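WP5 quarterly update. Target: Zn-dependent hydrolase. Source organism: Hansschlegelia plantiphila. Length: 431 aa.
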Amino acid sequence: MPDISSTAPSPAAIDPQRLQAMMEAVSAFGGGADGSMTRLSLSEEDRKARDWLGAWFKDNGFTQKVDAIGNQFGLLDLAGHNAPTVMVGSHIDSQPNGGRFDGALGVVAACEAVRAVAEGLKREGASSACNFAIVNWTNEEGARFQPSLLGSSVFTGAAALDWALERRDGAGVSVGEALRSIGYAGDDKVPVPAALIELHIEGAPSLENSKKRIGAFSRFWGATKYRLAFIGRQAHTGPTPMAERQDALLAAGFVITGLKRLAGDYGLDLHTSVGRLEVFPNSPNTVPGEAVLFIELRSGSPEILREAEEKLKAMIAEAADFAKVGSEVRSVDYRAAGAMDAGLVRLAGEVSARRGEDMPLLDTIGGHDAVALAAVCPAVVLAVPSVGGVIHHPTEFTKPEDQAFGVQIVADMLHELATGGAAVIKADKTP
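Structure tokens (predicted):
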């Protein structure tokens, strides 16, 4: 494996082989032979991965805490109770038939980076200005329970705990029931950190195309997410006259194609999708009586999002009229666009430059837990290249040398904060 450093060795040098061993270990929980990963939030596979992480915490001197929404923390006290805490991590839940690096790399990166910093400080006989916390957020993906970023949103107070615990999956199982079933319904209180750093795969081709080893997400797009139901009348596909049908799926198709056209009206500034469609009774010989669409609008512009939502509403009404069905908006989730912390972005660029790499600034169109944390503390997401820009697919891959470089940048940032940079970070706040 190539040397990740182009300068003098870091006092917090990571171990790339140790990093890869951890990635291989966590990939066993829900991983398929084709490279796929299905580790839905609060599933049995998720429990096994959480247990593995908890064992790592215990073996490496971290104190595990689990809060009421199941967020899993490993705390390392290096500076005493009154010192600020810097948090690092991501999530280990995945999409169904997704990839192995989205989220999981960020958690493993946190483990290796914090361990490298602690080992380096011990070798130097140096004290730390901050404590560290590694985090595995609950239900980042939003695949089993909606909305996404659920655990981090409860942590910051953006979502109410009772409301979140009542979110239900397609089988009717609530978040609270699932937490209890896997043994992760905790009651620990963990304060808001002084700063949060998250490493993630880019999930887009810009870094690879520009031959850059790392980037910083300095801006995040907003999102508007609708759960929309069209309600028609179930009937036989044979004898029921075409003119008398009230086809809920026909209305859904109208909206799906309309959303594609809507995105085209805004060039590169709007992304639209229907990622999930539930049809009832879902029989080949039955006119669908109900169709539920999971709709997303994403943009970096609040004005475009507002305008696109108004156009979506008009589209829904037109589709219902066309198909002679009713419509019902069952939920709407909003996530505002915003910026990552300029100071952390600057620090990331500085430590990257010392290793001979300039760090491009990127937008993140997808959501990350750091987006939720950005409302309550300085937060940043660093990105490492995705081969082919692939994400949420079994072929999702980031080269080991790129993984290692990204983790080393995180470790370098943490070392800077531990050896004085944390003095400018305010003490912890309780949510």
